[in-house]
Specification:
single chain, Phosphatase 2c, domain 1, 4 helices, alpha+beta
Length: about 240
């Protein structure tokens, strides 16, 4: 069992909070740590919604339990497309195919006095933000790593394509890829091209304005299958479609 996790929360304000990370180690201990983190995130968003506060709260709980370290990203996307992100030692994200350079900070669970600076940028219609765990760049074929150059070249592709490529290359460990796409809808309904590059998903009646679509692809070796989910977040309720292969 791997230690990848992600959580996506549509907030009452209409904003979207996303948390993605990777627990050190494997097996039962990693699974228990993931379970604790997911529960803690749910409790934390009841009292705070900033990425810095989320990471600080998670760090405090992990340090108290001495459960090893966890790399993690937390980001919030506002209804007008303002993206706020904080990083706790996780892999860099990709914005429209380029690395998004954030101020570095230690992973969660390593020290209690760590601060997690926030970075802000405008998320414009057509922009794509790709978050992933090390299952992609660390895929290995014989003695060759998939590497960061290939990962960056793939970062503008749908999440399922990225995960499929890493798995086909030779990854037998967990993979998690989350791709967020900003869309401006003037028709009041959402349509996303990306699960299979050609099949449109009309998810439901939406709203006029900026909508965030999140496509998530995960691979767990003990399940031997690729799972994917499509979620839409706006000021209206979230809609989603899920699948497995």
């Amino acid at each position: 069992m791997g230690g990848d996790f992600y959580q996506i929360f549509p907030l009452a304000s209409g904003e979207t909070l996303i948390v993605l990370g990777d627990v050190s180690g494997k097996g039962l201990k990693a699974a228990m740590t993931v379970s604790m983190i997911v529960g803690a995130i749910g409790s934390l968003i009841a009292i705070c919604e900033s990425p810095t506060a989320i990471l600080t709260g998670l760090n405090r709980q992990l340090c108290e339990r001495c459960w090893g370290f966890t790399t993690c990203l937390a980001l919030r996307i506002s209804t007008d497309g303002l993206l706020t992100i904080a990083n706790a030692g996780h892999l860099l994200s990709y914005h429209n195919g380029f690395e998004l350079h954030l101020e570095p900070a230690l992973p969660l669970g390593m020290a209690t006095d760590v601060t997690y600076p926030e970075f802000t940028m405008q998320f414009l219609p057509g922009d794509r933000l790709t978050l992933l765990t090390d299952g992609v760049p660390e895929a290995m074929c014989v003695r060759e790593l998939f590497g960061f150059a290939r990962t960056q070249a793939l970062s503008t592709q749908p999440a399922k394509t990225i995960a499929d490529t890493a798995r086909t290359f030779g990854q037998i460990d967990a993979i998690t890829v989350l791709s967020s796409l900003a869309v401006f809808s003037s028709q009041g309904c959402g349509c996303f091209f990306g699960v299979s590059d050609s099949t449109p998903y009309t998810v439901g009646r939406g709203h006029t304005g900026l909508t965030t679509w999140c496509l998530i692809a995960t691979y767990q070796p003990f399940l031997k299958s690729l799972h994917f989910a499509l979620c839409c977040f706006a000021s209206s309720p979230a809609y989603g479609a899920f699948g497995q292969e």
